[in-house]
Amino acid sequence: MTMLDLRTDAAPASAFESAAARFGILEKPDLAFTPAIARETEHLYEKVKDFIPAFEWAAYAPYVHAINRLKKERNAVILAHNYQTPDIFHCVADIVGDSLQLARDATQVNAEVIIQCGVHFMAETSKLLNPDKTVLIPDARAGCSLSESITGADVRLLKQRYPGVPVVTYVNTSAEVKAETDICCTSSNVLSVVESLDSDTVLCIPDEYLAMNVARQTNKKILTWKGHCEVHERFTADELLAYKEANPGIEIIGHPECHPDVIAVCDFSGSTSGMINYVKDKRPGRVLLVTECSMASNIQAEVQGVDFVKPCNLCPHMKRITLPKILDSLLNMTDEVLVDPAIADRARLAVERMVNLKQ
Ligand code: 13P
Ligand code: SF4
Question: What fold does the segment set 147-228 form as a domain?
């Protein structure tokens, strides 16, 4: 029998020239901790000194210095989510925020290059809103359990099962899923988005707990999916009640990706920026943030006189982003985030409907 060899030595034609080819690769800078670097990064160390011991700053500072220099050289802007570590959040980010703020701010960016310090769906959202810019993520493996929980094919089946029911998709999804969607939402606008739809029944996917939490605030019938955030699903109401008992007067504020039983024992619930604003405005004497634990450190650096109780649940995906990887991104123009043109227009429409919704 003769086997047909269909392989070819020619590399498959790429639809895009890589960012490295367009911008060129830069040489790695010297990362020695010199007196000049110590001086030039002193004001940044002030912001993170409670989290990074002075002897460790010698390892951080050369990266911070090189990243801030290369950002200008590359005409790049760093967008960082509230869950990034304090060194990234306070020392190299240009814009910080929750998912909605980052999506909104991505539409206002003037730079040629966006470096997304967050997870992959956030970088995809930035690319959707900036098709002509180069969007990089320092580690393309930074995923999200909610985003992984559902595919475009799943949404098509849901639409067949519930014909005519509008689909609201959490931004924590792939562009492929967004393309099947009427409108996106984030944890800060999910109620307004649901209420904006002219239908008594709404599919709110893929976060089951976010959907259950919004169902308690609206008269509409909410249908959902069984996706969960692997960080927020770990918190329990019993654990929080134990913290309350051990810390009389403590205020507990939770992210709506937590189970409704957890939210029921919280004094306030909101998006990551909603939680930050609550702490900044109300200045509780003692507070526990029921969310990813870098965020408490990021706010702690900005508010005085608030005692943070910190159960530490980390998002392993957010934590893939580090200073050395951000530097590599800038040097090598990687990892570039591209969205399949066959789905980009429909996915963009769903994000733009959300961004343009009057609150
Ligand atoms: P926010 O939109 O509240 O920032 O939430 C994003 C997220 O991934 C929370 O886990
Ligand atoms: Fe996804 Fe949860 Fe991580 Fe947010 S914290 S990125 S929802 S896995």
Answer: Rossmann fold (3.40.50)
CATH code of domain 232-309: 3.40.50.10800
Give me ligand 2 centre to Cα 125, in Å.
15
The residue whose CB lies within 8 Å of the most ligand 1 atoms, and thus the one to mutate among 146, 148, 210, 255, is 255
Give the pLDDT confidence of 144-191 residue by residue, as tens digits: 999 999 999 999 999 999 999 999 999 999 999 999 999 999 999 999
Ligand 1 center to residue 272 CA distance, Å? 6
| pTM, rounded to two decimals | 0.94
Fold classification of 13-144+318-332 is Rossmann fold (3.40.50)
Integer Cα distance of 90 and 61 in angstroms: 12
DSSP labels, 180-210: T-SEEE-TTTHHHHHHHSS-SEEEEESBHHH
d(CA 183, CA 232): 24
pLDDT digits 0-9 by tens, 210-250: 999 999 999 999 999 999 999 999 999 999 999 999 999 99
Q: Which residue has the tokens 């399949």?
A: 340
**Binding-site residues, ligand 1, Cβ < 6 A:** 82, 98-99, 172, 186-187, 229, 255, 257, 271-272
